[in-house]
Amino acid sequence: MAEALARITEVADLGMIQIRADLESAGEAIAAAAGVTVPASGTTSADGARRLCWMSPDELLLVLPRSEVAATVESLNAALSSQHALVLDVSDMRAAFAIEGAKAQQVLMKLCPTDIASMPENGMRRTRAAQVACGIWRQADGFTLIGFRSVGDYLRGLLMGAAQGGTQLEPR
């Protein structure tokens, strides 16, 4: 049996907060309440255990320890009280997987129709893994993929299958 291309691990106790707002006018308030600078388009910014991901021109995803979600939602709502904004705990509706190892990029390239190779270290992409909507960000040790928890088992299977090393076909 061939060696796996990467290690696939489900990330436990991860909290996620969706933030929708006018990022130009609310960016400073979001950064102060989230404890992380607002990232540029297509990137993430991190500070310790917190990562703020750019999802669209008016949407961010704050990833943080699950134990800090409630207090952070409260801080964000207070900071954005004068803005037209949405702050929502989406921790229970998402599953996250770490893809680590020297060939982690190859695993994602098998599944995703996006240029994974050109992502910078703090890069963020919204794409698909096979037919499933997902978000991917690059980290120093590999990638994190998030998707809906309702298809988490399917995502795990896709990632595990793509991580399997090459196999030799037997001639007929």
Automatic annotation (TrEMBL):
Pfam families reported in the protein's UniProt record: SoxG
Domain of life: Bacteria
InterPro entries: SoxG (IPR007375), TrmE/GcvT-like (IPR027266)
Gene3D superfamilies, alphabetized: Heterotetrameric sarcosine oxidase, Probable tRNA modification gtpase trme, domain 1
Name of the protein: Sarcosine oxidase subunit gamma family protein
Species of provenance: Paracoccus aurantius
